[in-house]
Design a protein that fits this description.
With about 900 residues, the chain is mainly beta. It is built from 11 helices and 63 strands. Strand 2 and strand 3 form a beta hairpin.
């Protein structure tokens, strides 16, 4: 217990207010703003309990996301002596529980308070937040009669209702760190689905609200029995006694509202708190609806007739709402724009078209993460823990999202929670989730499509035996309605007139029956709705083609569904998603995030920029420090080329001109040659080209890599006779050495883990690299070229190692996007490191391609960093939602 006068940051404790299971509450003074506040602190012993701490932090984040007069306002959150605290507005008044201890409330007061509670819940539900523990103890009545909803400690991001009987982690049960199967909430106010451990959604709060209304009118609990078990049984099986037996009369209309709130089946309750607020407001005449206006315009109407008119209007409004919600979708095509917080790189509609998931840079970090938005609502909710996400896809019941991040396939509950790793996936190219509990995904650019069960078991290749001559990749799988067959794109990386391989194919998850057949030739992702196949053409038009999923055959002529959609030329991803109910969402933006080369000092101060914002990647500074190699995406030509940009204002020049994709330019130690990756119809090559500008492209030395494998140059040896590369194959990623001038490719490190980003030290004796042998990517160092010995550089995750040019430090990026420096000491036969020191958040451009492997480089003195820094565009392209997207096409 804190004593008066204790200081916690700028807050001075005045007196204790109370204590409960979630912490101690004090009256305190904010010395900065000279106001009194409430300070809620979790005792240190509780802070050691991971579950209590999680719930406390959850309360803070949930309430901070809300701004409504009927919800407690949160001002600040922090930590004091190892214990977290939360600062909120100081309320004067008493809890609804204290009021009910004196007996039932009048009907007028119940309705007045009920409207406010419903309005507060509606504001929370609009942000996909469900309270899950609404009860009189968590409802406060201020001295001026204002309702405040407290304690969102059990709140979770709302998810749409899923099929009965499906278990959803972290919704109504405790986490794995507490007793298994313990139901969270207060038994007397739990909805039946909470008691059963099923998902909580806004209708769960509506049930609890009905129980609170019942108690406000009757003065007794609707379901409380002698034991929690008996109480939960009553919630599941019994109805509360009629309110007609209450101490005071209750109008039939109000009792019907309460009974509807307390329906056992969520489908039979009010479907939103806003509708409930309307119904209560209509009874009181306080709601700004047509009912209230009519009442104001008819002062001479008798009270009985007024109630009758209000009831008729309410019934009509409810009937109209019911009809609109359940009538068949209109045949006419309809579309509207929805705003997004930042540029969207990837998107996915749920199968029923009600929910949209998309990837967008975080407001503060610039790191891409998943957002979820209900179609028709204006706000998008980020999913914590999904930083670095790409290419999301929905589970059939809308309860989970699959996505890719940190070289892994993951799934995360839409309700929020810790993502679960399902499989390895390096520069993945899409996934899809069937009704049979199977996920099909493309784990890498140049390898087969794989399958894995939704629990992470049974990972195995699917299309490894289906490659055609000339094919280099299989990607962008999409399940068809039977959950057995799926579409995928197969082909090579070069669009050419004689390409008769690249296109959309159909195959099966049954390895014995997964022969393939061609649907159409193209170079774009494809999506399927109820009867149509969508894909982009070379001009950027989104086309719709009649498609029979049972036969896997397209027919008829394509029609233009959208005049233009964004397109990523390096991945063949088109910026759209389709749902089974005919809903379509698309963007006219490419989805490629803008960035600009930015000089930063070791404190993170911006020193200047090089060039203008563009779609760029992989900055690599020349040995003399005068130029930088960088990949530039030409959105109009749908191509990626290497450019050499001046760091001394001497002018920039395009370095590669082949129509094929060329990327990741790496300078030789003498600065005379740049090695880069080129993809052609014949396969992947490492190209060596002189930097003088006098050498023709045809004079470059090509080092081919056969089959569907991929190789990316990382760094040169000290004598310029070897290139250390990242090598991608069906078994994962590894490091390989290319010897010059023969072009012979040999493995560098034998390992069952995945290895990337091999960087040879300035003296040529050591190599830093990234490996996931411990589960997460970490930075290591070994000897070069022998690969003997190993030293771990990062702790808790690390990527993108870079050597300081004098060899005295290694830099890397930690999982939070912070550039970190590690002192290095070497002798002829020893290697040692100092303590890692964080420098500054990189806010680098999010990778969109397998070749996006460098976000920054280091100046010769190690005091400046050239960072490919994310830039928020001046205008954000909204997404467009289209209902009945194929209606009237071609007419």
């Amino acid at each position: 217990m804190l004593t008066p006068g204790t200081r916690i940051g700028p807050y001075e404790i005045i007196a204790p207010i109370g204590a409960g299971g979630m912490g101690e509450v004090y009256r305190a003074r904010d010395t900065r703003l000279a106001r009194e506040i409430a300070l809620k602190i979790l005792p240190h012993s509780f802070a050691l309990d991971a579950d209590r701490l999680r719930r406390f932090e959850q309360e803070a984040h949930a309430v901070a996301a809300l701004n409504h007069p009927n919800i407690l306002a949160v001002f600040d959150i922090g930590e004091h002596d190892g214990s977290p605290f939360l600062v909120s507005e100081l309320l004067e008044g008493e809890s609804l529980r204290a009021v009910l201890d004196h007996g039932a409330l009048p009907q007028r007061k119940t309705i007045e308070y009920g409207v406010q509670i419903a309005q507060g819940l509606a504001a929370a539900h609009d942000k996909l937040i469900v309270h899950r523990d609404l009860k009189p103890e968590n409802i406060f009545i201020t001295r001026d009669g204002r309702i405040k909803i407290l304690d969102f400690g059990l709140a979770k991001l709302a998810q749409p209702p899923g099929p009965a009987g499906v278990e959803h982690d972290g919704l109504t049960r405790t986490s794995s760190h507490t007793a298994a199967g313990v139901v969270m909430g207060t038994a007397s106010y739990m909805a039946p689905e909470q008691v059963r451990g099923l998902p909580a959604d806004p209708r769960t709060d509506i049930f609890a609200f009905g129980a609170v209304l019942y108690e406000m009118l009757s003065g007794r609990s609707a379901f409380r029995r002698d034991t929690p078990a008996e109480t939960m049984t009553a919630v599941l099986r019994e109805d509360p006694p009629e309110l007609s037996g209450a101490a005071q009369p209750v109008s039939p209309g109000l009792e019907r509202i309460i009974r509807r709130c307390l329906e056992k089946n969520p489908e039979q309750r009010f479907q939103s708190a806003r509708d409930l607020s309307f119904a209560l407001g209509a009874l009181s005449g306080s709601d700004a609806t047509g009912t209230a206006k009519i009442a104001q315009q008819a002062p001479r109407m008798q009270p009985a007739l007024l109630w009758f008119a209000a009831a008729l209007l309410l019934a009509a409004a409810c009937a109209l709402t019911w009809f609109i919600a359940r009538r068949p979708a209109p045949a006419a095509r309809m579309q509207f724009a929805i705003p997004v917080p930042a540029e969207v790189s990837d998107m996915a509609l749920s199968a029923d078209g009600s929910l949209l998931a998309f990837v967008s840079p975080g407001e503060s970090s610039g790191i891409p993460m998943l957002y979820v938005q209900r179609i028709g609502m204006s706000n998008a909710v980020p999913l914590p823990g999904t930083e670095g996400a790409s290419f999301p896809f929905w589970s059939p019941d809308n309860a989970y999202l699959g996505f890719f991040a940190n070289d892994k396939l993951k799934k995360v509950p839409v309700s929020g929670g810790t993502p679960q790793v399902l499989a390895n996936a390096f520069s993945a190219r899409g996934g899809t989730w069937s009704s049979r509990g199977v996920i099909v995904f493309a784990p890498n650019v140049g390898i087969a499509i794989w399958r894995v069960n939704a629990d992470g078991t049974g990972a195995a290749p699917l299309t490894d035996t289906l490659y055609l001559k000339g094919e280099q990749t299989h990607r962008w799988p999409v399940f068809l309605p039977d959950g057995q067959h799926f579409l995928f794109w197969g082909g090579n990386f070069a669009e050419s007139r004689d390409d008769q391989v690249s296109g959309i194919y159909v195959t099966s998850i049954d390895k014995q029956k997964n022969d393939r057949h061609l649907v159409l030739l193209n170079h774009s992702t494809a999506q399927y709705d109820s009867g149509h196949l969508y894909y982009a053409d070379a001009q950027g038009q989104l086309l719709s083609l009649p498609f029979d999923p049972s036969k896997g055959i397209a027919s008829g002529s394509p029609a233009v569904a959208v005049d233009f959609v964004g397109f990523q030329p390096s991945t063949y991803w088109a910026a759209f998603s389709a749902a089974a109910n005919g809903t379509l969402v698309y963007s006219t933006s490419t989805g490629a995030v803008l960035s600009v080369l930015t000089w930063m000092d070791r404190s993170g101060k911006e020193l200047g920029r090089v060039g203008e914002p563009d779609v760029i990647a992989n900055p690599t500074i020349s040995p003399d420090g005068r130029r930088v190699s960088v990949d530039v995406t030409d959105q109009k030509a749908k191509n990626v080329d290497v450019w050499l940009m001046s760091l001394t204002n001497a002018g920039n020049s395009r370095f590669t001109f082949d129509p094929s994709e060329e990327a990741v330019g790496v300078w030789s130690r003498d600065g005379a040659i740049v090695a880069f990756r080129r993809v052609t119809t014949g396969g992947v090559n490492i190209i060596l080209k002189g930097t003088s500008g006098l050498e023709h492209e045809k004079g470059a030395l090509a080092i081919p890599v056969s089959g569907t494998d991929d190789i990316i140059p990382n760094s040169w040896s000290a004598d310029d006779q070897q290139i250390l590369c990242s090598y991608y194959s069906s078994s994962g990623s590894s490091l390989a050495i290319v010897s010059l001038p023969t072009g012979k490719v040999a493995p560098f490190l034998p390992s069952k883990s995945n290895q990337t980003n091999g960087m040879i030290s300035p003296d040529g004796k050591w190599a830093a690299y990234v490996s996931d042998e411990l589960g997460n990517p970490e930075v290591y160092v070994t000897t070069f070229p022998a690969g003997a010995g190993r030293w771990q550089i990062s702790r808790g995750g690390g990527t993108e190692p870079r050597w300081r040019p004098d060899g005295k430090e290694i830099f890397f990026i930690d999982p939070k996007g912070v550039l970190t420096a590690v002192p290095i000491t070497t002798t002829a036969d020893s290697f040692s490191t100092g303590n890692p020191a964080p420098l500054f958040p990189v806010r680098g451009r999010a990778p969109i391609s397998s070749t996006d492997i460098f976000t920054y480089d280091v100046s010769k003195d190690g005091q400046r960093f050239l960072v490919d820094r994310y830039v928020k565009p001046a205008t954000i392209t909204p997404l467009t939602v289209v209902f009945n997207a194929s209606a009237d096409l071609g007419k």
